[in-house]
Fold this sequence. Notes:
Elements: H1 6-18, H2 22-35, H3 43-54, H4 57-70, H5 76-88, H6 92-100, H7 107-119, H8 123-136, H9 142-155, H10 158-171, H11 177-189, H12 193-201, H13 208-220, H14 224-236, H15 243-256, H16 259-271, H17 278-290, H18 294-302, H19 309-321, H20 325-336, H21 344-357, H22 360-372, H23 380-392, H24 396-405, H25 412-424, H26 428-441, H27 446-458, H28 462-475, E1 483-488, E2 491-496, H29 505-521, H30 537-545, H31 548-559, E3 566-570, H32 576-589, E4 593-596, E5 601-605, E6 608-609
Parallel strand pairs: 3-4
Antiparallel strand pairs: 1-2, 1-3, 4-5, 5-6
Helix pairs in contact: 1-2, 1-3, 2-3, 3-4, 3-5, 4-5, 5-6, 5-7, 6-7, 7-8, 7-9, 8-9, 9-10, 9-11, 10-11, 11-12, 11-13, 12-13, 13-14, 13-15, 14-15, 15-16, 15-17, 17-18, 17-19, 18-19, 19-20, 19-21, 20-21, 21-22, 21-23, 22-23, 23-24, 23-25, 24-25, 25-26, 25-27, 26-27, 27-28, 29-31, ...
Amino acid sequence: MTEPNIFSWNTMIGGYANQCHGMVALELYCQMQRTGIQSDGYTFPCILKACARLTALQQGMAIHVHVLKSGFGSDVFVRSALVAMYAKCGRLEDARQMFDKMSQRDAVSWNAMIRGYVQNKLCEEALKLYREMQLTGVELTKHTITTVLPACGSMRDLQQGKDIHGYISVCGFESDIFVDNALIDMYTKCGSIEDACHVFDNMSQRDVISWNSMIVGYVQNECFDKALDLFSEMELGGVKPDLVTIAGVLPACTHLAALQHGKEIHAQMVRNGLKSDVFVDNTLIDMYAKCGGLDDARRMFDTMSRRDVVSWNVTIMGYGMHGYGDEAITLFSLMKQTDVMPDDITFMALLSACSHAGLVGEGWQYFDCMRQDYHITPSVEHYACMVDLLGRAGHLDEAWNFTKNMPLEPNAIIWRALLGACKNHHNIELGLQVAERLVELEPKYAGNYVLLSNIYASAGRWDDVFKLRKMMNNRGVKKSPGCSWIEVESRKHSFIAGDRSHPQSEEIYELLDSLAWQIKEAGYVPDTNGVLHDVEEEQKEHLLYAHSEKLAIAFGILNTCPGSPIRITKNLRVCGDCHKATKFISKVVRREIIVRDSNRFHHFLDGQCSCGDYW
């Protein structure tokens, strides 16, 4: 075209701006300016959209000057585009000033300002402006709805979200897939998973975003099994997952320790040709490490083409939770040789690794290093790691003084770490002082009472144990039952102590009888110190006999290939007797048994545990 007119220029600029090629749109705009062709009321909204998408504030401000010089300063479409540009670039005061000076506003103007507040996480202001919009009588559009619903989700304002849903029903917007997706996202963020399911189930059509929103919603609301079930349903329905799906569903595998599921999802991602990014790779490393596949996690880390600080953090954290403190320290040394700067999470991972491995000197070194070399101010979580490190190592007086002299107010995590140390090292006097403060902070948390009960029981103070139980009953505090589970052929099998509900119970208990005899022959003596009942020793042994992790291990021996690792997960800390028994079981059956409890991993092999009995 030898002499393109304004229509031609606008078509090209608008096309590139709408296709997210903002730099090309800006170059074309500059070329048009040089030709002497004057911009019009269509040019400016298009090029301002490009600036907004690029967050190109300087170019946007320059175009604002062109707008004023060209006489389009009062054009409602141009002013709406300016509001959107300033808001997207984080200049909310300028955006609001522009908005307030508009003599007339249409839905686009209101939507632009509301969206600006939402994008800048000022959701309360967004909802306030939405209510003002309603009062003006301006007709709400689908764009208004999809803009304001995320604000309801972020604010957890379920009632406002339901009110908007009512308006959607009246206006007949429910058949719109974008509106439905926004509703699902809002309901899940507000914790109303049933309402989200209702919207999802009644959608006439769904896209990958619909499935992703529902899967992520299940994970956010700790419905991990349902997230995996929905992912399977998505596959059966022929909907191809994208990277958002993968990143959304992997945390469900992580929480359930469903390693086989996680591996299958990873394999499917590769088969579908999905090119991974750093975020997904980090999620995979975290999943493998927390599901017991530490070697897989390290292989994933080593093959990454680019690593950010999260990549290093999750891998260091993985080594720490498995008790491999030296490996975590070695990895940190490698990190220092790169251009990736450690952050507060890095040092939290290092301190935790030192705590699990009993590396007290190294822990102090990194605690000082983060402050002096990296100028990171320790948070309460860092102090909690230090208290845990000192307490586990038996330095109770030092941990107590450290807690009293720390510049921040100790929270429940710190007191609980110290109370756990008092239990492990049989310090009743200090334990009572710590428990008193802990119960004040968390009067309804059962774990605190259980720790104190253990301290009393180990000292034979059964009257105090009974008094504590009575206090728990009076306060309505209930202890969560211990539960262990194992994944076999991508199916989860759960057990509680004394459980006989499993179809294979008869075989499980027969094997337990046989194992009990074999490990006693090998030298096992039951550890009854953790039994919180004043009964005869024989009865205590009987109570220990069918703990949930022992049932899960027996099931694993029966249903997995000889020689393969048995992976167990427990919702509570593994008890002393089960830890001792599992060491002997690993020896007599010649299997590696990997147990993830609420604190860490234990790798049992040939009568030894990776924790070195330091846990």
